[in-house]
Amino acid sequence: MDLVPALEEPLKKVLGPPTAKVMAEHLGLHTVGDLLHHYPRRYEERGQLTHLADLPMDEHVTVVAMVADARLHTFASSKAPRGKGQRLEVTITDGSGRLQLVFFGNGVHKPHKELLPGTRAMFAGKVSVFNRRLQLAHPAYELLRGDSEETVETWAGALIPIYPATAKLESWKIGKAIQTVLPSAQEAVDPVPATLREGRGLVPLPEALLKIHRPHTKADIEDARSRLKWDEAFVLQVALARRRHADAQLPAVARKPKPDGLLAAFDDRLPFTLTEGQQKVSKEIFDDLATEHPMHRLLQGEVGSGKTMVALRAMLAVVDAGGQAAMLAPTEVLAQQHHRSIVEMMGELAEGGMLGGAEQATKVVVLTGSMGAAARRQALLDLVTGEAGIVIGTHALIEDKVQFHDLGLVVVDEQHRFGVEQRDALRSKGKQPPHLLVMTATPIPRTVAMTVFGDLETSVLDQLPAGRSPIASHVVPAADKPHFLARAWERVREEVGNGHQAYVVCPRIGDEEDDPKKAGKKKSPEDEAEKRPPLAVLDVADQLGKGPLQGLGVEVLHGRMHPDDKDAVMRRFAAGETDVLVATTVIEVGVNVPNATAMVIMDADRFGVSQLHQLRGRVGRGSAPGLCLLVTEMPEASTARQRLNSVASTLDGFELSRIDLEQRREGDVLGQAQSGARTSLRMLAVIEDEEIIAEAREEAATLVAADPELEHHPGLRTALDALLDEEREQYLEKG
């Protein structure tokens, strides 16, 4: 039997079951290799201390500081009625700020003996606020003293690594576990080919692992970081390059539009000319469709840049060439809306086989989960006979029952709402792999596109069509300046008075049962600060109808309504019969009512930057200017307010997506987009490391073109297998 390679040794064997269990459950670490790749978040210098003044609220922190003062208090409480309750208050300082530590009950004895003024230690715990002062309650701590052998050894390095830790496992315990497994780093197989490594002056992998966990100087940390960033970027780009290479080998039917077919007839009846951007992107798509291997293209377009028009022209080209096109939308409201607007744009060209239909016409059908049986049967029949050239639907399209005559193109709207499995299931309905066009209105910075959607070619639509109006955005600080909120409702009345309509968006619906499970959930300090749940559609609609918007037609729209009711509400709003629509984010994507000019977003701080940008894109779709008011009760200095100010200050989605990424940790962005498997990026920062990613992509493409099976790069194969644990492999396979 083969010996298990050192890095694949389970942690259970090396560290013992209890520690291994905590590492697996809380940090996702299972093997020695996993632990070696759990890198320090930062380093403390023995002589310098963390700025206590900059501690983030509600986060698990590790600080190195000195005890300034320690006092034991006794008090009476229900558990200790005779004044026998004990509370130890310890003040620690790092020269820049002070922090209070508190210990209660039996927990006071040990720290009372050990935490004497002048003692230095590492402290770990969750930062909270008590009496307007920052404090750590019952922190774990490790004294920094050079008496026993082990601590001298452990803390001898001038730089103390601080690891991403959890309440169950403090940074120094992780550090000790890493010291135990560090000798195995010598056996790490290097994924980066030697020529590339030497050409770029990168240190070998075993050396990088030693230097990241046990640096002697800051230069060691730099060497290790630049090497480990390259690993991550390169291995990921090789995986994507292999994916693109494999796709290029797949067969597909080339689909070329006829010179006098459906597309030409459609273009003739357009009341406007396409923007330059639309023409350029259409050409890229038509060139891809004309080849004999499947198109894989990501179409990014600002809200309202006319993506649907570009996608529709691609669908018509495929129908011209004898195929069918399917458009997958994330919600029923959207599928119905796309269907309505496409049928409207096509006019008699969408009435194939009907009286009054044009000669080149085809049928456009919609397929959603809540359709009646008869309508559904007819739609399925139109698809299998090829009568319908275009189908628009929700994931109901993916069901086994749905069969196509000849599926040539799949258009996925709002990619981030769909699992890869869903995209793939639809693609498998073609006799040969169909072409794939993925659309998103969430602008993605170039590096993220290269990392997350690296298997797709990218087209960007960044011009707005003529006739679109600018949107003015303002933050309304409801707590500091209540009269601003009153003015917001006056503005809504003014817009309605001028013949326009408005949206009011809220974070939740309001008919949720008080779920005891949720009630027990830990609240963030921001929630604690305001002690109230997010505003709800049903409550807000009720208050507005009775109060500031009395006399106007106010309706509600949310995800738990019956699909027919949702559709009826949307139709009334689109027809101008409703003045104000109070909704959840169901209106975030694709809802198109040009007459709606104002939007008020309640509790705007509860939404992400790109979500706010998406929502805002629902107004200003006609010739009248749009207005978006971001209502918040967060105080001026909070990060939430800064986020809202940045949304109000620019309409450029790419700029906002950079801000969004800088504020979130990219792990979220990639983690979500990468099938939910834990993100492999631990060292690489997608925005900052743009150059490394671009260079790694080129190197990877060259290497894969020369050796697609990686026969000459066994180390790289091993690293790929580790990256593509099965879930991931499937993700990239399906791409």
From TrEMBL:
Segment forming the signal sequence: none
UniProt region (Disordered), positions on chain: 507-534
Cited PROSITE patterns: HELICASE_ATP_BIND_1, HELICASE_CTER
Task of the protein: Plays a critical role in recombination and DNA repair. Helps process Holliday junction intermediates to mature products by catalyzing branch migration. Has replication fork regression activity, unwinds stalled or blocked replication forks to make a HJ that can be resolved. Has a DNA unwinding activity characteristic of a DNA helicase with 3'-5' polarity.
Family: Belongs to the helicase family. RecG subfamily.
Domain Helicase C-terminal: 484-662
Listed Basic and acidic residues bias regions: 515-533
Keyword DNA damage: yes
Protein name: ATP-dependent DNA helicase RecG
Entry keyword ATP-binding: yes
SUPFAM superfamilies: Nucleic acid-binding proteins, P-loop containing nucleoside triphosphate hydrolases
Reactions performed catalytically: Couples ATP hydrolysis with the unwinding of duplex DNA by translocating in the 3'-5' direction; ATP + H2O = ADP + phosphate + H(+)
Origin organism lineage: Bacteria, Bacillati, Actinomycetota, Actinomycetes, Kitasatosporales
One GO-annotated biological process of the protein: DNA recombination
GO molecular function, one term: hydrolase activity
